[in-house]
Amino acid sequence: MSAEEPITAEPIAEEPITAAELAALMRELLPIGLDADGATTRLAWTAEEEHARRWFGARARELSRQVERDPAGNLWAVPDGPPPWWAVGSHLDSVLAGGRYDGALGVVVAFAVAAREPVAVIAFADEEGARFNTPTFGSRALLGRLDVEDAMQRSDAAGERLRDAFLAAGLDPDELASAPDGLARMRGLLELHIDQTREVAHTNAPVAIVSGLAARMRTQVLVQGRADHAGTTQRDERHDALAAAARVIVRGDELSASTGGMLFTAARIEVEPNAPSTVPERVRLWLDARAPEAEKIESWRDRLEDSARAIARECGVTVELRTAAMSVGTQMSEHVREVLRDSAASAAGVASAQEILCWAGHDAGVLAQAVPTGMVLVRNPTGISHAPEEDVSLEDAAVGANVILRAVRALT
Prior knowledge:
- The protein is α+β, with helices and mostly antiparallel strands.
- 33% of the residues lie in helices and 23% in strands.
- It contains 12 helices and 16 strands.
- It has helices at residues 19-26, 47-62, 104-114, 137-143, 148-152, 162-168, 199-202, 241-259, 294-315, 334-345, 363-367, 394-411, and strands at residues 2-3, 66-69, 75-78, 85-91, 120-124, 186-194, 207-213, 215-224, 228-229, 263-272, 278-279, 282-291, 318-327, 330-331, 355-358, 373-378.
- The strands form 3 sheets. Strands 1, 2, 3, 4, 5, 6, 7, 14, 15 and 16 form a 10-stranded mixed sheet that branches. Strands 10-12-8-13 form a 4-stranded antiparallel sheet, with helices on one face. A two-stranded antiparallel ribbon has the order 9-11.
- Helix 3 (104-114) links the parallel strand 4 and strand 5.
- The two termini are 25 Å apart.
- Residues 5-11 have low confidence and may be disordered.
């Protein structure tokens, strides 16, 4: 762990967390990475994320917390008492042109809770995986379940390797093996997050409790064909990588529809040479598949592999599928869920907090495999996320923050 400068003591707040307090905490955070169109871009291992790290340090010092960065780049603001501590937090990185509250709201709430209770505030590194396709990087490193060699060789859209970006951020890839040592300092984790669907809104309550996370898989598809003239190359002479990739997308969607209870997205595509008059030579494609049970995704993937082989023969190309990331899904701690339900029952404006299955990936879902974890989702009336239109009522967020606060007090 690397520590930053010492700090001076500040009084501990006693009153409930308010919307005004949350607004004040995030006033200097929300402009970081914000563009003229209202979109937020704070990709991992960039200058914008470094700016957010400085914001984290400033908030920690206001609370007399020592700031540490572990070998995976996770930020910790730790209390004076000896570990293990309950941790509260989320992440500060974003997707490309994303929303204001995804991740950031959970870190802001963590600081509000830490003003009242001796919890560790944590901001996980590279939760989104938007730059190098390395989602939940920091939490997986804490569990020792990060394929370091594979991750460090991944490149962003500009061709920069994660290894180089990691070194430029002042971190050493060779020290990642020691990241799991930090897990012993954590008694458990509570995470607040904006709902990325309309499910909480449909409950007519400001918050809901997460029962567990759906299984999800990111599959990278590489299609290799041959570049040729778009106007002179006859159909039976073509080795069109993009035409083959389109067939893979359609087949992936058809297979997911026939599976039932599954979501499929062709999330990203890169085409080379991407020229108007050239038959595409190479395509890189990323597919996102989610389901309540991992078995459904694994069956879908097996059938897609079979289809990809047939498509490759038909189009005269090669098609390679590789699993970029896989989460089998997880259940949150039953005890923590019970505490969160009780805490919500006593919160103002909450008649009852329902439990829902979360289809997004979160660090709390990763750590649930090793320590007690719980999640609170805050109502999002539009369901929009990963977009500039993402929004949430800070009054609702304050309700969620006080649910987390009550739960911390019950758990410690």
